[in-house]
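quick one, 188 residues, struct below
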Amino acid sequence: LREATRQAAARGRVILVGRGMRHLLDCSVDHLHVRLVAPFEWRAQRCSEITGAPLPEARSNCARRDKRRERFVHYFFGKDANSPSQFDVIFNTARVPIADAVQAVTGLVQREWPMSATTPTAKRLLTLTFPVGTLERDADAALAQRLGLRLANRTVLEHVARQLGLTLSQAEQIDEQPGWIFQRMFAS
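---
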């Protein structure tokens, strides 16, 4: 996962989504780390609306995915990995419309953060972290298009799948589960 992340980041002008991307990269002034959050009930309601699942089922799905992602991040990156201090910008999408968050991030990127004339813009990188239900479907792709950046969410997962001899579908089924890489590599 680290190697796939580094390869995607090395090409620059990219958005890396989830999977602890913020923690897999060296600190660099060229990286902007964004986290989206929202209250659980709001996210469950959104998931219910998006998927058409009854609200109790959507709550259950959100809770299960939250727990799985929390275990993944804690296992690989420690208990403080999702601490607000780990991110440059945090938006609560229950209170800040995603369009406004996109506009704010676009402004940061287009203003060439940080304000330094010596920083090359060719290697810009944005990491985006969010629990299920905080982001509208395909909003990460819309953000990438608006910023003129490449979205590498699938690219990283495809690289990991190739390295482990899995299909993309198999990798998606076990994605973000603590220890799955080790289980696959050391199955014998």
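Strands lie at 14-17, 31-37, 89-92, 125-129, 150-151.
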